[in-house]
Structure formats: structure tokens, C-alpha cells
Amino acid sequence: REHLKNIPTLADNPIRTEIIEAFFDKRNQHNNELGSYEEIGFEEFLMVMSHFRPPSIKTSAEERVAMRKQKVCFLFNMHDTDGDGKITLEEYRKAVEELLSESGSIGQEGARAIADAAMLEVASTNMPNMGPDDVYEGITLEHFEQILKNLEMESRMYVRFLDMNTANLRCGK
Amino acid sequence: MAVVGPGSVSLRFGSVLLILLILSGSSWTRDIFTGRNDTRPEPNREHHDQDQDHGTNATKHKKAFPVLESNYDYVRMPFEISLWILLALLMKLGFHIIPRVSHIVPESCLLIFVGLLVGGVIKAIHEKAPVMDTKLFFLYLLPPIILDAGYFLPIRAFTENMGTILVFAVVGTLWNAFFVGGMMFAVCQIEAAAAAHVSLLSCLLFGSIISAVDPVAVLAVFEEIHINELLHILVFGESLLNDAVTVVLYHLFEEFSHAETVTVGDAFLGVVSFFVVSLGGILAGVIYGVLGAFTSRFTSHSRVIEPLFVFLYSYMAYLSAEVFHLSGIMSLIACGVVMRPYVEANISHKSYTTIKYFLKMWSSVSETLIFIFLGVSTVEGPHNWNWIFVIFTLVFCLLSRVLGVIGLTFIINKFRIVKLTKKDQFIVAYGGLRGAIAFSLGYLIHEDGDNKNTRGMFLTAIITVIFFTVFVQGMTIRPLVELLAVKKKKESKPSINEEIHTQFLDHLLTGIEDICGHYGHHHWKDKLNRFNKTYVKKWLIAGDRSSEPQLISFYNKMEMKQAMMLVESGSAAKLPSVMAAAQNMEQQREPTPERMIPKISKTREAEIRRILRANLQNTRQRLRSYSRHDLFMDPFEDNLSEVRFRRQRVEMERRMSHYLTVPAKRQETPSVRKVWFEPEHKVYTYDENESPRPSDSAALLDESNRSADGQSERQKPTRCLSDPGPNEDEEGSSFRSS
């Protein structure tokens, strides 16, 4: 992990912890395991990278749907740090706080408010018949997919690997 | 309805025509008036002379005191202008009253048609119609439309597709110009055309004029069909950016056609001048944009003139670019784009609304006037109908557009992730409308000695192409869009989740790129944002707002919109509490100037939000996605007393709950943290039971005196209600010990 942390440009990134964790997260290896690695090899690195493949013009509609699900799942795993299959309010708050941490002036309350509003939105779109007694446990994967379906993940979440300099690749070894 | 329909339609048509006739008649009769004015003093003078001649003490003929005089010349110019604009707008109104027609025919067609009618009428009475003067068009009519387009340009979509747009604009226009010009030259050589005197350079000039896709026409037509954002931005962006190419080509060929020979050096200079024109235009725009943003930083004391700064700086940018023959359109767009984020952060909400509506208003008026003038000028202008020339022009224009689009897309798709499908290509090709810019440029062509008829011929051809594209393509594009089932614009509301995740994604992809050591899009975009934040924003945005992150401003904007929507939809029953709470917010923000600054009193806001959320739970059906928090509502000052009361009540609740739950203080355990969210929702239950009215203090007490097993349950919600900061958080969570 230290290798990844030492990348200088990554230091400015507000969500770098999550990104680094994503590499070490076992769920992203499609092995149905939980927990995280201590160090990863090239294969695991590649598995994580494969989430960022762009769809080519030959990808069929079903493949696109599968690709989108895979990418959304990746994002979900990034948020769901304790691995219980739900994004709870705390986890979401943490994510929002980190996103806003760069500016520094908003403070915790504002971040909370935003996260709360977002959770509320998810709740109302996905479970519209929730009575006042119900408790919204957390965002499940299906709800997550639902609220992000307008974003068309498969065409947005990609990195162009056209001219990658392999000498700069660092593995977490 | 069917029976009444035609009758009323014809009635309206009749009234519209009547208005037309009256107006043109008035302009005709005014000449008579002026004539009469001139002739009237004559007899008076004669009289006087006669009197003086006689020189006797015959009573002087006294001119009666003019009770009612007519002096039309005094107001002639503004009168005519206003009359024209009024006519145009009445037409526009008229179309929307006639529903069936406005569905089939786009507005631009109707306006041209009206222009034709008016032109015909004016010609019939042998008047000189106001022709679309090039200066009038380029200096007064075009800038509002472009500014409107540039100011509200969707930046994200634009920059994502920038490569494609540039390729279409530059390469596509060049291809069109040369193809059409070359082919027309070939056509002119045919015997039957009787146009052999047209030189190659003139043909190329003609080609360059007619190949440019026109932003006005595109806007007018595409706005009504609501296609998806990608296609809209492709065609529209292309029409904006090809202005640079058009300007360069036009001046190039015009210069060349006066010069004797054309050398390679000249061609090279042409290429250089292209870069100068486009980059210079953008630079001029950026400079003025920065100036405008900087000025808006200091306008907090005179809010009323804020919109003027935006307009004037943009107009100056346009004019300055035109001075040096740089691309005025690109300068205007650059100015609007650069200025917008900073100005919006600085100016008041009302000024923002003013800017928005003024821009829309001006661009609407301009567009209407342009189309009407186009119609009038068609009837008026010098014509030289040359069948072969015109037909071939039309054919080649369409052909070159289609070929250009297909060829370029083939190349572009190799570099795009989201490929352009055949349907997209068709729409892009079909949406290449020509318009008034081509016509005005045609008007500018100088008449040469032996080419008397060339200009007329060109103009006729240009007009024909314009008419064809606007009428035929404009009318059929809507059914075609439906037929091909092209994706329409998404009408969804901006969702805060999407916004969060868009930003999240940006950071994520930047991070991944950093790990790969790959300097891609996201890397540079991130760098730009960082630069923007650290340096630029400090200079150009007033006060605290410079450090406000985008997510917050988005959130605040959304809340305000929701608040206003709430007010307008008049959910009156629930509204008092909502308004009251909002008034709370407003009051505690009194010291700060109108804008919302995210340094809020923590406790109060949290409480109020919870109350709001609880109360609005019931109005959920009416309000979609989320709409819980309102922060800003002006006109409810009369609720002041109720507000105070509510505030007191809330305060009392807090104190009471605090008092009641003070005893057990335990450490926080990790497991407790996780289920924290549940108690919050229990607030709903709590608040539902206690209806928010003054008599509730009693109820509160009652609740608190309930039996012990209910105690932990009930006290949790109370805790939540007064959940201000971390300390009390822990206290609250400690109760969830089981």
C-alpha cells in the first residue's frame, strides 16, 4: 500500500484512500471473497484495472448491461467499506466529507446535510411507499444501480490506455 | 371543436393579415403625410407674400393655432423600428394561437413566410422595403443570439465532445467549401449554364459562403425537437465554431479574387490567418470575460446594474474582435463561457434571473427579426434566376454535407468511446441548416465590372438553399426524429446523487490515471480545476464564496429551486411550518448578504432540517425525488411572530430533552455507530405524533413521563432531534446500548 500512497500526484486526490483500498479489496477480484489483501500482485492489479475498460463499438447490448453492472458494483464496493452489502448513512457521509474535504470551509454539518439529502433521495426514489415507521437500512446494490442509471456508467467510467507508459506502472508489491 | 376550428383559424389569419396591411399601409400613408406637410406651408407663404405685396393694412391672415399637428419625421426612425419589432412579435404570438400549424411547421418557416408576405405587400405598393443591411445584421441582430447560446452552453457536454466538434467544424466546412466551389465551377463551364464568366475564385467564394452551417437556423429548429444533448451539442457546436473558418475563407477568397495570381505563399498565409483569427477571437473573448468577472466582484453595492456589465462586456468582446477581422462569434462564446462561473457566483439571484430573461428575450426578438427580414429581402433583393446553377448548388450542398459527415465520422469514431451511430450521423447531416449568415455574406460581395449578374445569381442560389434547408429540412426533421426513434433529451431533474457521483467519478478516474502514470483527460482537467481553485477564483469571486466547492453550490441551488417550487405549488397546508422554519433560517442569516454562505449555525440548522424533513414527509407524494430543505423564502414576513414562537418551542424541546436524557452517559461502542441511521427515521414517528403546534410542550412532558420500557425508545428520538454536533451524538448513541 505504501507504494501507492507514495505516488505524488495521487496525494492531492481527496478520495485517495478509497481508491487505494479498492485495489486491495477482495470483492473486486470477483472471487466472492470478502476482506482485503495486504499486498497485491500484477494479476490482481490487472483485475481491478479491467473495471475501467471502455466499451467498444462491437459490444452488444447485454454486454453493455453486464459491463455497467460490473462498474457500478466497483463503485459500490468503494463506498461500502465494511462489506455488509449496504451503504449506510455513515459510509455515505464519509464519502461526501472526503469529496468536500479539499475546500475545507464547509465543515462537517454541511457534508452531513448533503449526505442526508442524498440518502433521502435514494430512499424516496426506490421505496416510495415507505411509511414513517420504516427504517431505511442502507443503499443496496440494486438501489445504487437505480439511482445511477442515468449516468450511463459504461461510457463514462473508463481510462484510455492508448499510450500508457509501462515503466511507470507501480504494483502494490 | 372541429367545426369551430377552421372558422376561428381563418378569422385569426384574417386578423393577422389585416394587421399586416394596416402596418404597411401606414408606412405608405406616412409618405402622403410628409407630402402634405410639405405642401401645407406653401399656401401659407403664398398668402403672406400676397399680403406683403399688397402692403396694405389688410388684415394679416392669421394662421390658426395648430391644435393637432403631425410631424412624422421627428420620430420616423424609432417609430419604424418599433413598428417592425412589434409586427414581428405579434406574428410570433399569432402562431402559437393557431395550434395545428405550429406543430407541423417550425416557427422559423412561418416567420420567413410572413416576411415574404410583407415584402410582397411593400413591393406591391412600390415602396422601398428595409433590406437586411449587413451592418444591421452582424452588429445588432446576431450578437444577442450568439451570446445567449454561449452563456448557456452546456460546458461539460461541449468539452467532452470538443474534438469531434472541431473536426466537424474545421475539416467539414473546408471540405464543403472546396467541394461545392469546385463542382460549381465545373458546372459553370457547361454550355447550358450560360455562366462561363464566373471564375474559379468566385466559385470558391460562393462555396465558402454557402457551406457554413448557421447557428441561428440550427437553434431555431433544434430547439423545438428536443433531441438528446449529444447530437444537439454536436450540430450546434459545429455551427458556432465554423464561423472562424468561414471568416477566413471568405476574406481569403475575396482578396484573391482581386489579386492577379495566387501563390503557395498566399495559401500558407491563409492557413496562418486561420489560426490567428480563431485563437485571436478566443483570446479577445477570454480577456473581456475575465474583466467582466473581475468587475462583478465589486458590484455588491449596486446590484441593479450587474446584468448590464455582462451584456456590455460581451458586446465589447464581439465588437473588438470584429475590428481586427477576428472571429466575433468565437470571441463572444469565449467571453460568455469564461465569465459565467465567476459572475454567477458573485451576482445576486435576481440579477441572474434578469440576465437569463433578457438574453432569452433579446435573442428571441433577434431571431424573429432575422427571419422576417430574410423573407422581405428575398422579395426585394437582386435576383438572377439561373435554373441550372441553383439546382446544382442545392444538390451539391446536400451531397457534400452527407459525404462530409459520413467520412469524418468514420475517422472520428476511431477515437471516440461513445461512437456515433448511423442514426446520429443522419441527424447531424440533416441538421446542417444554412441561414441568414450566408445571406448576409452574399450581400457583402462586391460587384465587379463584368460580373454584374454574378452577384444576383449567387444571391438567388443562396436564398434557394436557405429556403430549402429551413423549410424542407426544418419541417421534416421532427417527424424523422420520431420515425427513427432518436434519443430525446432527458427531462429528469438534477439529482444530488448523480452530482455526487459525477464528482466522485472524476476524482476516481483521475486517481486511476495517476496510478498508471498516464496523463489523460482527467489529469489535465483536474489540474485545470486545481489551478482555477487556488488562483483564479480568489481573484474573481468576492468574499467567502471563492472557496465554495461545486457540490455545495449545486446543493444550494437545488434547495433554492425546490423551495421556490414548493412555494409556487402552494402546498399551503404544510407550508406554514415549512415557511416558519425557513424563516428561521433566513433570520439567522440576516447579517450575511443575500447569498447563502455555508457557515451556518450548526445546531439550529440541524434541528430545522429534521423538523422540515419530518413535516415534508407527508407531502412526499406531491414532490418528486427529494425536496426537503428550504432555506430561502422572502415574502413571508408576516409569519414573524409564528416564527418566533416556533423557535421558542424548538428551544424548549431541546432543553427539555437534554434535561431528560442527561443522566446516563456511556461510552460509544462501534456497533452503535452503524445503526445510527435508524433512530433518525424514528424522528418521523415522533413528530407525527406530536403535531407541531404550540400546545405541544404539554405533550412533550407527557411523553417524557411515559413508562420506562418505552423510555429508551422515546428518548432516542429526542436525542436525535437535538442532534447538533459530535458530543451529543455520542451521548445519543450510547442509549442504543442493547
TrEMBL record, chain A:
<keyword id="KW-0449">Lipoprotein</keyword>
<keyword id="KW-0519">Myristate</keyword>
<protein>
    <recommendedName>
        <fullName>Calcineurin B homologous protein 3</fullName>
    </recommendedName>
</protein>
<dbReference type="GO" id="GO:0032587">
    <property type="term" value="C:ruffle membrane"/>
</dbReference>
<dbReference type="GO" id="GO:0005737">
    <property type="term" value="C:cytoplasm"/>
</dbReference>
<dbReference type="Pfam" id="PF00036">
    <property type="entry name" value="EF-hand_1"/>
</dbReference>
<keyword id="KW-0539">Nucleus</keyword>
<keyword id="KW-1003">Cell membrane</keyword>
<keyword id="KW-0649">Protein kinase inhibitor</keyword>
<dbReference type="GO" id="GO:0030154">
    <property type="term" value="P:cell differentiation"/>
</dbReference>
<keyword id="KW-0221">Differentiation</keyword>
<dbReference type="GO" id="GO:0030027">
    <property type="term" value="C:lamellipodium"/>
</dbReference>
<dbReference type="InterPro" id="IPR002048">
    <property type="entry name" value="EF_hand_dom"/>
</dbReference>
<keyword id="KW-0966">Cell projection</keyword>
<dbReference type="InterPro" id="IPR018247">
    <property type="entry name" value="EF_Hand_1_Ca_BS"/>
</dbReference>
<dbReference type="GO" id="GO:0004860">
    <property type="term" value="F:protein kinase inhibitor activity"/>
</dbReference>
<dbReference type="GO" id="GO:0005509">
    <property type="term" value="F:calcium ion binding"/>
</dbReference>
<comment type="similarity">
    <text>Belongs to the calcineurin regulatory subunit family. CHP subfamily.</text>
</comment>
<keyword id="KW-0963">Cytoplasm</keyword>
<dbReference type="InterPro" id="IPR052490">
    <property type="entry name" value="CHP3"/>
</dbReference>
<keyword id="KW-0479">Metal-binding</keyword>
<keyword id="KW-0106">Calcium</keyword>
UniProtKB/TrEMBL annotation, chain B:
<dbReference type="InterPro" id="IPR001970">
    <property type="entry name" value="NHE-1-like"/>
</dbReference>
<feature type="signal peptide">
    <location>
        <begin position="1"/>
        <end position="29"/>
    </location>
</feature>
<keyword id="KW-0915">Sodium</keyword>
<feature type="compositionally biased region" description="Basic and acidic residues">
    <location>
        <begin position="37"/>
        <end position="54"/>
    </location>
</feature>
<feature type="region of interest" description="Disordered">
    <location>
        <begin position="34"/>
        <end position="59"/>
    </location>
</feature>
<keyword id="KW-0732">Signal</keyword>
<keyword id="KW-0050">Antiport</keyword>
<feature type="transmembrane region" description="Helical">
    <location>
        <begin position="105"/>
        <end position="125"/>
    </location>
</feature>
<feature type="transmembrane region" description="Helical">
    <location>
        <begin position="303"/>
        <end position="320"/>
    </location>
</feature>
<keyword id="KW-0325">Glycoprotein</keyword>
<dbReference type="InterPro" id="IPR006153">
    <property type="entry name" value="Cation/H_exchanger_TM"/>
</dbReference>
<dbReference type="GO" id="GO:0015386">
    <property type="term" value="F:potassium:proton antiporter activity"/>
</dbReference>
<feature type="transmembrane region" description="Helical">
    <location>
        <begin position="137"/>
        <end position="153"/>
    </location>
</feature>
<feature type="transmembrane region" description="Helical">
    <location>
        <begin position="387"/>
        <end position="413"/>
    </location>
</feature>
<comment type="similarity">
    <text>Belongs to the monovalent cation:proton antiporter 1 (CPA1) transporter (TC 2.A.36) family.</text>
</comment>
<dbReference type="GO" id="GO:0098719">
    <property type="term" value="P:sodium ion import across plasma membrane"/>
</dbReference>
<feature type="region of interest" description="Disordered">
    <location>
        <begin position="684"/>
        <end position="738"/>
    </location>
</feature>
<keyword id="KW-0472">Membrane</keyword>
<keyword id="KW-0739">Sodium transport</keyword>
<feature type="transmembrane region" description="Helical">
    <location>
        <begin position="425"/>
        <end position="445"/>
    </location>
</feature>
<feature type="transmembrane region" description="Helical">
    <location>
        <begin position="165"/>
        <end position="187"/>
    </location>
</feature>
<feature type="domain" description="Sodium/hydrogen exchanger regulatory region">
    <location>
        <begin position="583"/>
        <end position="669"/>
    </location>
</feature>
